[in-house]
User: Fold Queuine tRNA-ribosyltransferase from Sulfurimonas lithotrophica.
Amino acid sequence: MEFTLDATSNKARACTIKTAHSTIQTPVFMPVGTLGTIKALDMQDVIDTLGAEIILANTYHTYLRPGDKTIAKMGKLHGFSTYPKSFLTDSGGFQAFSLSDISKPKEDGIEFRSHIDGSKHFFTPKKVIDIQHNLGSDIMMILDDLVALPATKERIKLSIERTTEWAKDSIEYFRTKQKEGIGVDQNIFAIIQGGIDKEMRTKSATELCALDYDGFAIGGLSVGELNNEMYDTVEHTTQYMPEDKPRYLMGVGTPEDLIENIERGVDMFDCVMPTRNARNGTLFTSFGKLNIKGAKFKEDPSPIDAECECPTCKRYSRAYINHLFRSREITYFRLATLHNLYYYLNLMKQAREAILQDRYTEFKKEFYAKRSK
Assistant:
């Protein structure tokens, strides 16, 4: 991986990340393709319409179905999906958290039962890396111990101690495998934990950032805390993260969350929000959220967002999209998903341009001003 810090505007950063498969300009939002596909879209949509240089796939889900060994035989994620750009794969730690009724963290890994057939599995730091070697992702995330908030200080302390120990095992194993010729074009990120406890975040960030990782993520947020608590935690944590490596905030969030956390020094984001909300009838626009299922749109000839250049907005009216949603037409899911992801990716391009011009503060004010009309 090559990393360049192109410009700053106060703490906001514009960077360039080069992997074996693509050149990624930040700030960047990574569409979520859990099973190697973004729901309702094909790869032509992702490449030609969205111009996405990186998407996220899920280690836990692809391990269970179709299986990481099957994906390896089919040309790894790039060959299997035909997406030629970069993949980031998460480690399964979040799935252990979100499926806590069928999973249990232990000292040496996470035990869980498949949500598909109930079969028992055990993820260790090394096994997670082996799976991601089979997936062939450009950026892999290590196994971490994530806790829901609020949590006791004792549980948070255990979380970061366990995460640090797993991180030490992971980086040693990953670098050893690279020396053996395995995963030489892959990169690995560690995940900072600590809840919203600043002392715990400082400890986790300091310990992890001393290790030989290619980048660092902030995990364990947007899991029950207030927005201002998330923002304060990010602002506190980024000061302990290297300036010469990517900074990734996992699982966040709304357009407002992205704008706020770019201001606090974050480079990379992912979230299911634009795709999931699209399927449920909520569309993101320059002027805020729009619930397209509303009866008031039944005869509205205007586009979803007059400022948007996506194919959906350029061709179709709110009335037509409203009709498709209310009729449960399959076409709706593609058009709505395309719009929401286009909006998110274009917002990141606008943010980058503002940073390059050293006017991010003004850009943020303009962003909120449109939403208050």
Notes: The CA atoms of residues 75 and 169 lie 28 Å apart. The mean pLDDT is 95.
